[in-house]
Amino acid sequence: MKLKTALALLALAGMTGVANAQLSDGVLKIGVLNDQSGLYADVTGQGSVIAARMAVEDFGAAAKGIKVEIVFADHQNKPDVGSAIVRQWIDRDGVDVIADVPTSSVALAVNEIVKEKNKMFLVSGAASAALTGSACTPNTVHWTYDNWALANGTAKAIVQAGGDSWYFLTADYAFGHDLEAQVAAVVKGANGKVVGAVRHPLSTADFSSFLLQAQASKAKVIGLANAGGDTTNAIKQAGEFGIAKGGQKLAGLLIFVTDVHSLGLQIAQGLQFTESFYWDQNDASRAFTKRFAPQVKGNHPTMIHAGVYAGVTHLLKAVEAAKTDDGAKLVAKMKELPTDDPLFGKGRIREDGRKVHDMYLFEAKTPAESKHPWDYYKLVRTIPAAEAFRPLADGGCSLVKKG
Amino acid sequence: MDFFGIPPQALLGQLLLGLINGAFYAMLSLGLAVIFGMLNIINFTHGAQYMMGAFAAYFLLHYLGLGYWWALILAPIGVGAVGVAIERTMLRHLYKLDHLYGLLLTFGLALVVQGLFQNEFGSSGLPYRIPAELQGGQNLGFMFLPNYRAWVVLVSLAVCLATWFLIERTRLGAYLRAATENPALVQAFGINVPRMITLTYGFGVALAAFAGVLAAPIYQVNPLMGSNLIIIVFAVVVIGGMGSIMGAILTGFGLGLIEGLTKVFYPEASSTVIFVIMALVLLVKPAGLFGRTA
User: Fold this and answer.
1) pLDDT digit string (tens) for B48-96?
2) Do A166 and A265 lie in a common domain?
C-alpha cells in the first residue's frame, strides 16, 4: 500500500515535472492581497484580482506551459491581519507572489515576511516610498506610483503656481506620514513653508473640525495627505465650509478616478493630482477598460488596477525567461528584462525595485467639458520617467551600490 | 487670552461643530433607546437602516426625480416599512428569549444588508447635493457656519424633543410604557399591544432613516457609513443608560462636544475618546449616567 502511494506520488511529481520543470510545485501561485470591503475596496479590491486574471489570460500562460493560479484575500487595512494571511499563504498554500497590497502599513509588514521567506512582492496599491528606499529588499518590485512621485508631481506644480504655504490634513498612519513628509520636502525645497498639520484617524467621517483648523492657519494650500473615502469626505466638506471661497486651495495628493466619479465633477472640478494611468489615455487603455469595466459593475480601472495588470504581465515574462519561482532570482530577472506592456508602455525596473515610467499631472474637468460617462480628466503635464521618481542615490536603499 | 494655545474664538467654532456631530449621535441613539426601552431588542441593524435612509434619498432623486424635501418624508416611511416587515417576520419571535438572540439576529441582518449594498454600489459612495435652499452659509465672526449644518442641529433637536414628549408626556406614550411593564394587563384594556410594538419598531427605524437623509448631503452616500457610526452610537447609548430617552439625547449632544474638543487638542485620539469615557462611566455607574439600576 505504502509503496503504491509512493509510486503514485512519484509518477505525479514526474508528470508535472515534465510540463513545468522550472516551478518548485508545478504552479505559479499569485496571491492578491488588498482591501476587499473597506474604504480602499473600489480603488483596489476585486478590480485588482480581475486585472491579474486578465494579465494571465492575455499572456497566454497556459499555452506557454506555465500553470498560474490566482487567490485573493481581504487584509482589512490591518498589518496584523495581512501578515497572518501572507504567512499562511506562503507556509501552507504554496503562494509564490504577493501582489497589490494597498495601505502602506500592511505593505511594509508584508515586505519583511516576503524577504524572509524568499518569495516575491509585486506592489501596486501601496504608496510608501520606503519600499524602494530604507526598506527595500531584493524580493520587491514597486510598480504603479509612490509618495515621492505624487509629491513631485502635484506639490511642485502647485508651489510653482504660487501656493507656497501649506497646511496638511494627514491620515494618521504610515502612508499619511510618509506622504506628508515627501510633500513638505518638495514645498520647502521650492522655498515654500509648512505652517502646520493635523493628524486624523483612518476612516474619519467628519472633517469639519480639521478643516476649520486648516482655515484658521491661513495657509494658501490645504494638502490632503490621505486617500479613498477620507479624501472624498474632506473635499466634499471643504466645499460646504467655503474653503475655496476664502481663497485657500485644496490639494488632493492621492486621488483616483473612482474618487472623482463618486464626488461628481461639480465638486471635483479643478482639482489637480498626479497619476500614472488614465483609462481614456490611448487605444490600448480604452480597450483594456472596455473588457475590465463590465466585470466590476461599470467601475473604470484605477492606476492601481492597471499596475497589477502590467506587473503580472512582466512577472510572467520573467518566469518564462528565468524558469524559476525563486523570489530573489525572479526579481533579478524582472530587473534585467526591459518592461513593455499596453498600459504603461516601455520602461524598466531599477536596482532598488522601483519601476519607472512617465507620470501625469491631471486636472478634473468641469461638468461642461465632460462629454461622456467617466470623461473626467484633462492632461496638464507629462512628467517624463527620468524626473518622475526619486533619484536612485537619494532613497538610501542598501541594494544600490555607492559609486 | 488663549486656552492651551487655542484662541477662544476657534474653540467656540469647534464646540459648535461638536454640537452638530452630537445631533447625529443623539438622533441615532434615540432610536436605539426607544427600541430597547419598548421592545427589549438591541437593534444592531440601526446603522444599516441609517445607511438605507441615505440610499433611499439617493434613489428618490436618481430614479424618481424627487428632491431632498420629499426624501425627508418618504425615506423614513419607506425604510420604516421595511423595519415593520422585519419585526413582523423575525424579531417578534425573539421577545421572550435572551437579549443575545435579538442582538445576533439584528447584527447578522446588518451585515447582509451592508454586503448587498456594497456589492451593488461599491465602497466609494455616491454623490448627493445639498438642497438649493440650504446652500451657502453665515459668517458668525468666529467661524463660517454652513446653513445646512445649522439646519441639521435645529431639526434634530426638534425631532429629539418631540420624541421625548411623545413617549414621556402623552397618552399614547403612557400606553407604550405600560405595555412594556405588563403587556397582558394593557391588552385586557382593549389595546392592541402587538401592533403597538410593531409600530414602535417601525418608528425607531424611521428615525434612523431620517438621520440618514440628513447625513446624505454632508457625507458621501456610502454602504459603510452606518457601520462606521453604529459602534459609536452604541457607546453613546451605553453611557446614557440603555433605554433612557432623555439620557440618549443628552449624552448624544454631550459626547459630540467632547469629541469636538478632542479633535482640537489631540486629534489622533478623536476616534477613541468616546470609548474611554464609556469605560470610565461603566466603572463608576454600570447602569449608565441616566439609567435606572434594575
Assistant:
1) 999 999 999 999 999 999 999 999 999 999 999 999 999 999 998 888 8
2) yes
Query: Do A176 and A243 sit in the same domain of this protein?
Result: yes
Domain count, chain B: 1
pLDDT, tens only, A342-359: 999 999 999 999 999 999
Chain A contacts of B229, Cβ < 8 Å?
Answer: 205
Contacts of residue A30, defined as CB under 8 A and 6 or more positions apart, other chains included, come to A52, A68, A69, A70, A71, A95, A96, A97, A99, A312, A315
Are A38 and A166 part of one and the same domain?
A: no
- Which domain covers residue B217, as residue numbers? 21-225
Total residues found in chain A within this entry: 403
Asked whether the ipTM of the predicted complex exceeds the cut of 0.95, the reply is no
Contact (CB, 8 A) for B15 and B250: no
Total domains in chain A come to 2
Q: Is residue A400 part of a domain?
A: no
Q: Which of B124, B221, B233, B274 should we substitute to test contact with A (largest number of A Cβ atoms within 10 Å)?
A: B124
Q: Any bridge partners for residue A140, and if so which?
A: A121
Tell me, yes or no, whether A297 and A238 share the same domain.
no
Q: Judge whether B270 is closer than 8 Å to chain A, CB to CB.
A: yes
Let me know whether A158 and A265 are in one domain: yes
Task: Report the alpha-carbon distance of residue B154 to residue B160 in Å, rounded.
Answer: 10
Question: How distant, in Å, are the alpha carbons of A225, A272, A359, B227 from that of A275?
Answer: 15, 10, 6, 31
Q: What is the pTM of this model?
A: 0.83
